[in-house]
Amino acid sequence: MIIDLHRFDASKPLNTDFCVVGGGPAGITLARMLAQSTHRDVVLLEGGGLDPEGDTQALYEGAVESDLDFPIVDYLAKSRIRALGGSSFHWWAFCRRFDRLDFEVRNWVPDSGWPITLEDLRSFYPEAATICGIRDFDYDPSATLVADPLGEKLLELPGNQPVLFHTGIPPVRFRQAYQAELGNARNIRLFLHANVTELLLDPSFQRLERVRAKTLGGKQIEVRARNFVLATGGIENARLLLNSDGQIAGGIGNQHDRVGRYFMEHPHLDLGILVLPSRGISGGIFDYGHHSDRLKQHVLATLAPTRALQERAEILNASVQLVDLSGFPEGLESPLDDSVVRLAENLWFRRPGIEARTEPGQRLFLLKSRCEQAPNPESRVALVSDRDALGQRRVKLQWRLTDLDRRSWLRWMELLGREVGAGLGGRVRTLIPSDRWPSGIGGNHHMGTTRMHRDPSQGVVDSNCRVHGVENLWIAGSSVFATSGAANPTLTLVALALRLAAHLETRPVDTR
Amino acid sequence: MDRRQFIAAAALLTGGGLTAALFWSKGEGGGDADPLAVLDALACESGGSNTLGDWYLARNPEVSDPDLLMRSIFGNEGLELQSPAKMQARLRDLIRLDYEQGHTLQAEGWTLSVRELQSCALVLLQRRNASGRGGADT
Lengths: 512, 138
Hints:
The structure holds two protein chains of two kinds. Chain A is of the alpha/beta class. Helix content of chain A is 23%, strand content 22%. In chain A, strands 1, 2, 3, 6, 7, 8, 9 and 18 form an eight-stranded mixed sheet that branches. In chain A, strands 13-14-10-17 form a four-stranded antiparallel sheet, covered by helices on one side. In chain A, strand 2, helix 1 (25-38) and strand 3 (42-45) form a beta-alpha-beta unit. The relative contact order of chain A is 0.21. Chain B is mainly α. Helix content of chain B is 61%, strand content 6%. The longest helix of chain B is centred in the C-terminal third of the chain and has 19 residues, at 114-132. The interface between A and B is large, with 46 and 41 residues.
């Protein structure tokens, strides 16, 4: 059942088994799974409507400080969508599993290591892929890429490997995909325009008793539940906990000042340029939307440092898309015809008047990255005194990078340059300045602000995503990520939501 | 083989291939690269090897002598190479070896073989000498 809170008689509190706050990919997945598997009652509270609305979206506005030369205006309001389906409204469905190393403690990465491993998520990835509208496969570059049906040869380098992202064309929009199921489910009550503004603990302060939700028109409802899950996104999850400070100073789950800290994005940077001789190198598969008949899936191939290289060089994970600057897709007219010819003539070891070894069509690629960001407690979501239309304190995002981030970018480009020089006769130049932060953007990936850690003094949720110190409050979404990896977060956050649903299914009907 | 023949061989290896360095050393730094600008710059004849030669010599003034650079690049075997083609082939192998062994430097953002940079420096010195002496250099 779908209910618009604007038109609901909210005079009495609602009671339910499971209250899920937030109707994005994580919240929708949880609500569907809990309703299907437990047959118990689920209330799903979504702050927006069926489509994005300006006044609702304005609730997200806030201030941003970034180390990067960051050109995005209104990042907080534009990088996410407050409507049923959440940010799947504007995603491109780039999906890839996290690497095994992403979960492990790396002694060169402070605060690295999850309390779970890739194995704990492995069984959930296939269903997560189905939910995200892609075909899942257990990535094996030697099996799946080298023998690509187009016969395209990818870069073969010892310390760097081709890595595939699946892409959904068109991407799955969670609202369109799951609205009917949510509406038809007998044990789901989906409330639209129900903006949760307050989390209220019982007198013990160890259980969440109810949440309060409001419309922008002033209508209000309270929901009491045995189990609560926050799934409002990587910034709002922290904001909601911090704003719920009426009973506990600093907010719920924040007894060790961890809520909002460790904010991570995936810095999207122009890391370098790569010049290659043309022999046997194809740029086609590096293009967005390349269709692999073998995988029956649109894919985007990238280049990434191997685990061994990350360990040896003590660098963070990353991947780069190779944007071919020296060729244009068939059917597109190139304005550079003459220039490309001259490039081929001049670029590769040739001088006028000297008969030189030259080969036509040397390739030039821009290396556009998705970089892992090092966990950093000073990178954070904090509240400011300015309030939104619902009276909630707004957010100031301080997106802070570390020397490890910069060192990783520079070191990887240096080592890639060595491998390309030795194995392919090419050259690499970094575009990262050594004396300042580069210009760059994020991927609209908000992670880490309620990070997972066994130790309550080091994290906000435990290995089951339960908020430390609150026995019936869980968090879903990328805010629980302890590290960010270099893969887009949605596939993994949906897998985590499935794992959380499986965990919650085992909860007794009444734990009190 | 004399030094002039070597210069021709080295220029063959270093001159055109590194023109990109000049563009990227002009202060564009990081940030979004403009593909058109990149291509235009690369397609132009420019003194990329001069820039890199300058870069190397500025940091290694003690080897600002063609003979020293020759020895540094080839050891004693340089004089035994009988033709520009053989020298070119040998230099190519040595440069590849530099990359394999991590014998590289970061010059103007490029990851480059030390011998590659030394070759650029040698070409630059040759050009300077030729300019200063009216072009003759043997």
